[in-house]
Amino acid sequence: MEKSKIMQHEKFGEKDFQTIIGNLLRYGVWISLSVAFLGGIVYLIHNGSHIEDYSVFKENDRNIFEVITAVYNGAIQGNGSYLIFVGIILLFLTPVLRVLLSLFSFILEKDYLYVGITLIVIAIIITSISFGFSH
Amino acid sequence: MTVLTFTLIMILGAFLAGFIGSLSGLGGGIIIIPLLTIILGVDIHYAIGAALVSVIATSSGSAAAYVREGITNMRLGIFLEIATTIGAVCGALLSTIAPTSFIAVLFGLTLIFSAVNSLRKKEEHIVLESSPLAKKLKLEGTYPTHDGQIVSYGTKNVIGGFSMMGIAGMMSGLLGIGSGAFKVIAMDNIMRIPFKVSTTTSNFMMGVTAMASSVIYIQKGYIEPGICMPVVIGVLFGAMAGAKVLVKTNPKKLRVFFACLIFVLAVNMIYNGLNGKI
């Protein structure tokens, strides 16, 4: 009862987007964690008795597209650690999808100031990709 | 130590970190890093990567509920994300060139700052009249209380809050943490946003902020699947268990205990950082 009262105070479209974004965040987390968990089981079956040393950092300098290609190929072959990586990438994509959804929401509301602000955020994220390997 | 033993220890440790992070209000990421580096001897770069992954998982998970209830101020969040993402990219780039000892010491100081901040008495001052810039950006909003009432609030000092958010984003990119303590200062103390809105909006922003630095982390090899998997699972379930306990107990006494614990961890980080042991 209380909830329906609240809904009347807000724009219907905005409430809809709140529900969609809320669901996206929730399912995004659970789907990506399930994939990472499955990958973890495969990884432990194959590597459980190995000995790994994480005390020394091995710096990489691969660009994101190389990483994604490697992850895709590895995951298809059923490599556990790459399957975990798929889960992690899905987890990273959840907030990105959220930003795209808010962009659509602002376009529908014809709030062009916020369309612009959301586009700036997207531009910064895209720039961060190119920064990663310019170093 | 075999991978299996290591994984089991990490799940347990991450569960504890998520649990303590949730009860103390500091977040799991900030506790998992000293745990990995001091106790398990993991390199701080891997620890930062794993912490960031767990930050995205816990923040998106808890943001989901608040967004649907209409408490989160999405406009405010997206506007401030400009500052946090720029900060995060700068922080992540800085972390790739900064010496490890510098990162360890800075992390220790941030831990102390966050612990002290979590103990500070908080007073709420809702402003009703927004500043002209806040009005132009449509940052004022409403939120529903437990009994279904709608509370309106305004905001002020947009530029001050925006700048503080840039620092919060930089700390997040540099250290792999959610930097909740800095965000709270920006929104509560500077912009005068009500607590309920500021904590949920800060949660909402964390995913995107972390995403901006995570691309750089992936490319530099900070994200090690074998560490991330047990950490994310442990922290998430720990945070969920913490949230359940939080409803039943009074966290005030616990907070003092956790603040002391975190202080010890922080001093340890700083000491090890200065001695080049991290």
TrEMBL record, chain B:
Annotated TM spans: 7-40, 46-67, 79-112, 158-182, 203-223, 229-247, 254-274
Protein's cellular compartments: Cell membrane
Keyword Transmembrane on entry: yes
Record keywords, A-Z: Cell membrane, Membrane, Transmembrane, Transmembrane helix, Transport
Membrane protein topology class: Multi-pass membrane protein
Pfam families given in the database record: TauE
Any Gene Ontology CC annotation: plasma membrane
Superkingdom classification of source: Bacteria
Similarity comment text for this entry: Belongs to the 4-toluene sulfonate uptake permease (TSUP) (TC 2.A.102) family.
Name assigned to this protein: Probable membrane transporter protein
Higher taxonomy: Bacteria, Pseudomonadati, Bacteroidota, Flavobacteriia, Flavobacteriales
